[in-house]
Amino acid sequence: MKKDGHIHTPFCPHGTPDLFEEYIEKAIQHHFTHISFTEHAPLPILFDDTTPDKDSGMKVEQLQEYIKQLQQLKLHYKNKIHINIGLEIDYISGYEKEISNFLQIHGPQLDDAILSVHFLYYKGEYCCVDYSKEEYLRFAEKVGGIQALYDLYYATVKDSILADLGEYKPKRIGHPTLIHKFQLAHNEQINDDEQVKEILRLMKQHDYELDFNSAGLSKPFCQEPYPAYHLFDYAKSIGLRYTFGSDAHTVKDLHQYYDTIFTD
Ligand code: ZN
Ligand code: FE
């Protein structure tokens, strides 16, 4: 089995119009047996997306069309590749009830899903920490520095693992070290290995799977996967289940780092 469990789609408002078929054909060409399309789910209605274009998640009106198209493609390609219909769900502190309600309604239509932290909350403000390095550095200053920002990130990931989001809660935790995205944009030396290991153990303990995500490799201020290789080795050493995720937002991102990561 060769799987990419984290692929975005033309329904991503901050992505590219690359077609479903292009992703699928490329996946087949590279001998993937399973792929999951995991578009950013609509954010809770009462949540005010902090990104300038408010484009972090797909529009709620588009959700049924997204699922319908995937149902057709899944059938069409069923002898060539197994396509999972999925979503990437944002875990947002304080919105647990709304997220659970969403999952209760839409969860039954999904084959796969990822739970990710992109938004952090601190003193009355939410921030999308992976939006830009300027936004990341500004928010770090507000919370008391880079280390404090890392601490807040891991505390939020921990909450996401422990949150009761009902029976359709995703079983995979998305890129749990996303806070490294701008690690080369500040001059601080952060050693968060123990924090990451604790998160990985907590995932194992609560039976979640790791989204071993190659997207960070192509980010100029990150240059490592989420999590870094030595922590991925740790994850394997404790028997944590994982699924590779390209997090592709464009066809060219698909498969790009697969062979770099899985050399054997
Ligand atoms: Zn995205
Ligand atoms: Fe994500």
Explain what this protein looks like in three dimensions.
The protein is α/β, with parallel strands linked by helices and 264 residues long. It has a single domain, classed as TIM Barrel. It has 8 helices and 9 strands. It has helices spanning 20-29, 63-76, 96-106, 133-143, 146-162, 193-205, 229-237, 258-261; strands at residues 3-7, 34-40, 82-90, 112-116, 119-122, 125-128, 172-173, 209-213, 242-245. The strands form 2 sheets. A 7-stranded parallel sheet has the order 1-2-3-4-7-8-9. The chain has a two-stranded antiparallel ribbon with strand order 5-6. Strand 3, helix 3 (96-106) and strand 4 form a beta-alpha-beta unit. 41% of the residues are buried. The structure holds zinc ion and fe (iii) ion. Fe (iii) ion (FE) binds at residues 88, 116, 118, 174-175.
Please specify the SSE layout and strand pairing:
Elements: E1 3-7, H1 20-29, E2 34-40, H2 63-76, E3 82-90, H3 96-106, E4 112-116, E5 119-122, E6 125-128, H4 133-143, H5 146-162, E7 172-173, H6 193-205, E8 209-213, H7 229-237, E9 242-245, H8 258-261
Parallel strand pairs: 1-2, 2-3, 3-4, 4-7, 7-8, 8-9
Antiparallel strand pairs: 5-6
Helix pairs in contact: 4-5, 5-6
The structure holds zinc ion and fe (iii) ion (FE).
Q: What pattern of helices and strands is seen along the backbone?
A: EHEHEHEEEHHEHEHEH
Bound small-molecule species: zinc ion, fe (iii) ion
Q: Strands across the major sheet, in which order? A: 1-2-3-4-7-8-9
Q: Could you state the CATH homologous superfamily?
A: Metal-dependent hydrolases
User: Which percent range fits the helix content?
Assistant: 25-40%
Backbone structural class: alpha/beta
**CATH class descriptor name:** Alpha Beta
> What is the strand tally?
9
Beta fraction: 15-25%
